[in-house]
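Two entries, shown back to back:
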Amino acid sequence: MKIRQFTLISTLVIIFIACDTTESFFDNEGDESENEIYTSLEEQPVDIQEEIESGQDFTSAPDSFPSGETDIPLPPEGYLYHAAFPGGITDWGEEDDMTPDDLHSYEQLAGKSIAWLYFSHNWFNDREFPFEMASWIRDDGSIPFIRLMLRSDAEQDHSEPVYTLDNILNGDFDDDLHAWAIAARDFGSPLLVEFGTEVNGEWFSWNGIWNGAGETDDYGDPNIPDGPEKFQNTYRHIIQITRDEGVENITWVFHIDADDVPNDDWNRFENYYPGNEWIDWLGISIYGTSDPMDDDCTSFRESMDDAIPRLEALSPDKPIVVLEFAAAANNPYCDQVDWTREALTDLISLRWPRVIGFAWWNENWQNDDDPSHDTVLGLKIAQVWLRYSKNSLEVKKLY
């Protein structure tokens, strides 16, 4: 779906974070007067200066909207989307049971509403379009972001017995996918959707390691590794079904991890890309540490500086989004607050101009019987976010 800059969206509340490229991000924790990000008002038109100073919206909404508007606009220059996976209550890995209370709790702590809410649609539960969840997310003012998870369970690091790439390509689930597409179309307002979350990571069954890996003689083009090629064609197959059903309200996202795992040439994320004619946004996951036992902590900047040039090489103009980022608490090699502060400093200073937004992954899970080994990504976000929330603007698109 083509993205039209500054298109007005009906039925949504779009949240932007105001960015400043001149001031550092709170250098001294605890002194709020010195830790603010100040918007450079003198660089804004006079009427925008007045709106910023008065707390009014950056863009005023008209009295009515064209019906059926389906595009997601780019943020105004100098702004970023703020989004989140706000966390739920089920076991780690399912990520499909968020409630309005979870969203409101996150937003209250963050001091800022979110532009989209990210959740999994697990086909081991059902194959129907997740209308109920998508509806309350929309009604609450955010965009539903659906991870289309064609899998038999939430466990990782194993091959898929049912929803294999081969079976999807063979059309075994076409009836379900057509029904899903029709329901998504009839939903009638913008959706963000991805298939193949973190495709270059071997923990998910759509990664090439489970689908032919680097072999080239069992499927398709003998010049392309079989595993990535199967994924390319599977994602295209799913998108084509939605096009056949006239779906125009989905923004399709290609979602990679910052690390190619395994770190083999055939598994480079570029090999999985379906192509610019199929994908609207490019997305990335970056984690400093995933549990307290990790003995390494890669900075957000290092991961982004490595990945962004490769993402930009895929397309000259596709927006890039940090779809997941976080660092686990209680790790001796990685201070969670410091890691997050440094990440946000670089993001809101627009170090990577193609990046249009970011989403915090707010989840906790148990790793073993020792509670001190639990992964806690649920940062006390107020420590970080509230420092600049009063200087950010909410651009509201209402009924």
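entry 2 starts here
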Amino acid sequence: MNHTLSGSYLKLINEKSKNPDKHPTLQNKITMKNSIIPMSALFVTGLVLPLHAGILVDYDGTDDYVSSDTDFARKASQSGSGPYVSDNPFSDSSQLSPSSGYTGPTFYGGYNYTSSTVNGYLSRQQIRDYTPNADQIFLQAYKGTGWSGSTLTLHGIYIFNQADFNPGFETGSVSLDGVSITWTGYITSVDSSSFDGRLAVEKSGTYYLSQTVIDLANNSGSFSLSGTSMQNELWAEFNPSSSLNFDAGSANFNSLDLESITAVGLYFEEDGWAGSSSQTTSFGLGIKTFEATGTAIPEKSHMSVLFGMTVLAVAGIWRRVRRQKAVA
């Protein structure tokens, strides 16, 4: 690295050319002068905390989380006489994931399923032991005589909280870099209904759903969003504690800074579809894998301390140079 010498040093160089023995410490001074910037640069480089990227959540049913079908820790209550309602209110503090017999990531959320005229409810709310395919986060509504004449609805959300992220990401500021999901999904198709999913995130205590819609009516589905596509995604506020039914038609989608994310998950819904007498399962949804990647960001307070330490160190170097010049 080249540095411009001050006028005083140029004067000393000229004097040394005339009287080489008069200034024996000149070369040392020039060396010290040239070393100030590189030394401080090394000091700063050594102190700045690097960004740490990795996997925040890794639900992978092939890891064999259960040895048999294992019910959720919280299950829906069943009530009504038309409509018939299965309701499991949203909670991000009371887990859905099984409290025992399960070794996978902890997850939260809630869901609601209704049948207008047929007396039927959710039949599976569990981690389904789907050996050898994958242990799936599974919801299903089954009725042996079918669902003919009934209008059906489903709304729900699964959430993975930051406190349960992988080590290194469970506290502090974390940015969301990407999400990938695989699933098995089924819904009765007599009215060509869709089965919609959306990504979900929490930031500063508010939940948001993605504008991008995932088609969950696929028996072997997959979806991923990352990089520029993730950065450019639009999001709308969503309050699952108030209602699990997201009204996309009146939602206001905007860009969202994905730093300081405190939860990530999947929203799923079908606002209304017709049951069938020939189809005993009105819907089934099994999440095989859910992976979220992100980056841990150093706290600003830590960076302020490091900057202050760097300033003091550089000031100390300058004082040493000034003392050496005074002695010389």
